[in-house]
């Protein structure tokens, strides 16, 4: 119920022009859109369970959530289409999200970087696993491990490589399961 309320409130904030942009992406790709929505709901739930304190701010949980989000969008969309088409849609959808719901420049860079980490993770795993056999747990475990080495983003121009990045100085490492 909480997740539905978040989506409804987010849509209410959009101007007519932004709604048109969203429709231009989603209407031609109804199945990708539905699967992306399902990936979004699942991501919110998983991130809330693993990172109850930092999934909705600029902390480690948010970094985890963005990377998981893109991984799951790709996982779901690749089950009905090619990885190339799924990747193109995922990038357009997640970049559009940043345009529709703008943040400060550092926050935007953090989100875009972590989105890229999730897309890269999926594409790196793709050759070793048939795309029909991907499971959510594959990404959760990998990204929880990456969360342990997440770095604080301080400069837009710095290269953070394949590391998750976050902004909050309060790192909340205790949220990351100790067994990883």
Automatic annotation (TrEMBL):
Pfam families cross-referenced by the UniProt entry: DUF6973 (PF22322)
Domain of life: Bacteria
Domain DUF6973: 24-150
Record protein name field: DUF6973 domain-containing protein
């Amino acid at each position: 119920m909480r997740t539905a309320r978040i989506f409804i409130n987010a849509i209410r904030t959009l101007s007519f022009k932004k709604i048109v942009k969203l429709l231009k992406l989603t209407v031609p790709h109804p199945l990708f859109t539905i699967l992306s929505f399902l990936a979004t709901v699942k991501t919110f739930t998983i991130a809330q369970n693993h990172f109850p304190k930092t999934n909705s701010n600029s902390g480690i949980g948010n970094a985890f959530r963005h990377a998981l989000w893109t991984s799951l969008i790709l996982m779901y969309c690749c089950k009905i289409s090619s990885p190339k088409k799924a990747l193109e849609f995922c990038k357009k959808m997640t970049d559009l999200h940043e345009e529709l719901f703008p943040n400060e420049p550092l926050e935007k860079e953090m989100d875009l970087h972590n989105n890229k980490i999730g897309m890269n993770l999926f594409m790196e795993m793709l050759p070793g696993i048939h795309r029909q056999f991907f499971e959510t747990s594959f990404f959760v475990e990998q990204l929880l491990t990456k969360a342990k080495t997440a770095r604080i983003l301080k400069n837009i121009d710095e290269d953070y490589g394949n590391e998750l990045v976050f902004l909050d100085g309060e790192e909340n490492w205790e949220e990351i399961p100790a067994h990883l």
